[in-house]
Design brief:
The complex is a heterodimer. By secondary structure, chain A is of the alpha/beta class. Chain A contains 13 helices and twelve strands. The longest helix of chain A is centred in the N-terminal third of the chain and has 15 residues, at about 5-20. Chain A is globular and about 60 Å long. Chain B is built from ten helices and seven strands. The model of chain B has no long low-confidence stretch (mean pLDDT about 95). The longest helix of chain B has 24 residues, at about 5-25. Chain B is globular and about 50 Å long. In chain B, strand 6, helix 9 (about 215-225) and strand 7 form a beta-alpha-beta unit. The chains are: A alpha/beta, B alpha/beta.
Chain lengths: ~325, ~280
């Protein structure tokens, strides 16, 4: 397994690589280029990098305007400001006219760490999911983050990409790995329960699967990197096969992957679904790894939820 | 009087007639700001802008954004006059299933360069269009019309900073300074004036004009083009509801439709003015 790398790092690297191939790619940032890693692009293509200053709302509008002229703008800032502060701009200036703007939202979730609740966005997936036509991608590692950027450039329309600050393991370095917008990935087979994971929780789901196996529980693991449009087929078929679902995400259990999975299965295949994530509360300061333990956003936390789901199976 | 000026005055009056008809047909909408900005739209679309209704997506066309999207009855009347769509569409403005939405929708309506309506946003998109021209070394210009009430939005000042910082001299901001907003006088609700010293402090070239005077509008647009190295703002002092006596300078006509009697009177006043032009 390769060294740990943050998905934001992969985002910056991908922009710089793809920027060399596609001259329409333009990158905007709001005084966070060092943190969002768009600085990697800025160093290579200073003429196509525009700092908008600490004015995210204007940045989203500028991105919209650029997109109307055929540019492929990547507007970058923290998830809190991209989805939170600029929700109206993203909805009305980007979503409503379905413009080809790519939003690179970094520092999502509680793994922002020490900066605390004001900067830990656990609501962005929920917010973005309510905008018609918005594609939402939450990569699980650096490989998937790179693929997401590549796919976003090819896709015509608005895309919200969610990246993290914390260095995480590379889990997709396999020859058979294939990324396609809207297609979930079956990471492991199982018969008793399905763990549906997104982002950095995919690795934890795989670890949880091993822990459960030792107790005689067979869990399938699905990686939902694209939360919208969600892969209904893979969710329904796995729900039918295993009869119980646990969703896990570094996000509020309201509005995110858990909600999306419930909405997908309700009325079609209503098996027990237990949602694992931030339990509708604000984050707090602390080192990212300690916070993951504090909020039980780890394999042990997933195992607990799996047992709850199994107890609910008919 | 110069034939061109007479012609533009007639066009501005046609825009006013179309706007009033649209709002009357919808039984809702925003006549006040549409009437105050009709002379500006006439000058832009029938003198200044390099646009061709047969090629609404021409990448080299000039752009116009109505950031104060609620004034769209005026824009729709202008686009219809210019030939982007049939004038009869004005009659179904705001109707269910109709083409002409309550605020501009660029996806559906030919000739609309940006969807707008949530105030403060269209101007930023205009900055993006102007920036794109700079990146690609294209000659097109971008014009944005905002309201004076709209300039209370913080995003407007973000965009003012941005345009100046990136020296967007291909961008022209026009402020429809009619002095009124929903809750009353702009100066009473939340004063935004003086624009001149504020915009100059932000690094802009500023021209103040009578925004209901065709000659002054044309002259300001020409001066804006000549200014290099910084963006130009035209502070257009206008009268809200201009051209319809009972709507003039009345905040109450910001977002209200005339009844049948009022509509008949408005049309009669506008036609009388138009017929007197020569």
């Amino acid at each position: 397994m390769a060294d740990k790398i943050a998905t934001r790092e992969a985002y910056g690297n991908a922009l710089a690589e793809i920027g060399a191939l596609n001259k329409d790619v333009v990158v905007l940032d709001a005084d966070l280029a060092e943190a969002t890693k768009t600085i990697t692009f800025k160093k290579k293509f200073p003429d196509r990098f525009f700092d908008c200053g600490i004015a995210e709302n204007n940045m989203m509008g500028v991105a919209a305007g650029l997109a109307t002229t055929g540019k492929i703008p990547f507007a970058s800032t923290f998830a809190m400001f991209a989805a939170g502060r600029s929700f109206d701009q993203v909805r009305n200036s980007i979503g409503y006219p379905h413009l080809n703007v790519k939003i690179g939202a970094t520092h999502a979730g509680i793994t922002v760490g020490e900066d605390g609740a004001t900067h830990q966005c656990n609501e962005d997936i929920g917010l973005m999911r309510t905008i018609p036509g918005m594609v939402i991608i939450n990569p699980s590692d650096a490989i998937e983050a790179r693929c997401a950027v590549e796919a976003a450039v090819k896709y015509v329309g608005p895309v919200y990409m969610r990246f993290g600050r914390l260095a995480v393991s590379v889990i997709n370095d396999k020859p058979e790995y294939k990324f396609e917008i809207g297609k979930g990935i079956r990471m492991a087979e199982g018969s008793d329960v399905t763990i549906v994971a997104t982002g950095i929780m995919v690795e934890q789901a795989l670890i949880a699967r091993e822990m459960l196996l030792a107790e005689g529980i067979s869990a399938a693991v699905i990686n939902i990197h694209t939360i919208k449009p969600i892969d209904k087929e893979i969710l329904i078929s796995s729900a039918q096969q295993t009869g119980a679902i646990v969703t896990t995400e570094e996000h509020n259990i309201i509005g995110g992957l858990g909600s999306a999975v419930c909405e997908t299965l309700a009325g079609v295949c209503p098996v027990p679904v237990v949602r694992h994530g931030i339990e509708d509360e604000f984050g707090k300061s602390g080192p990212a790894k300690e916070l993951l333990e504090h909020y039980k956003l780890n394999a042990a936390g997933i195992c607990e939820k799996v047992k709850l789901a199994l107890s609910m199976k008919m | 009087m110069d034939n061109k000026i007479i012609e533009l005055k007639k066009i501005a009056t046609e825009i006013r007639l179309g706007a009033v008809e649209a709002v009357y047909s919808a039984k809702s909408g925003h006549p006040g700001g549409a009437l105050s900005s009709a002379d500006i739209l006439a000058c832009l679309y029938f003198s200044e802008l390099n646009v061709n209704p047969a090629m609404p997506d021409d990448p080299n066309r000039d752009r116009f954004i109505l950031s104060k999207g609620h004034s769209c009855p005026g824009l729709y009347a202008t686009l219809a006059l210019k030939g982007y769509f049939d004038r009869k569409e004005l009659k179904s403005f705001r109707h269910t299933g109709a083409l002409l939405q309550g605020h501009p929708d660029m996806k559906a309506i030919r000739g609309v360069d940006m969807s707008a309506g949530s105030l403060g946003q269209g101007f930023s998109a205009g900055c993006g269009m102007a920036l794109s021209a700079k990146i690609s070394e294209k000659d097109y210009r971008t014009y944005v019309l905002i309201g004076d009430g709209e300039s209370q939005e913080g995003q407007i000042w973000e965009a003012i900073m941005f345009a100046s910082h990136y020296k967007l001299d291909n961008l022209c901001l026009i402020i429809d300074n009619n002095g009124l907003q929903i809750d009353g006088k702009v100066s009473d609700v939340m004063n935004t004036m003086p624009y001149e010293s504020k915009l100059e402090a932000f690094g802009w070239n500023v021209i103040t004009i009578d925004g209901n005077n065709i000659e002054e509008i044309l002259s300001a647009l020409a001066k804006a083009k000549e200014c290099k190295g910084k963006p130009t703002a035209i502070v257009a002092k206008t009268i809200k509801g201009k051209g319809v006596s009972f709507m003039e300078d009345q905040a109450g006509w910001h977002g209200k439709a005339p009844n049948e009697e009022q509509y008949t009177q408005a049309v009669s006043e506008l036609n009388e003015y138009k017929n007197g032009l020569n």
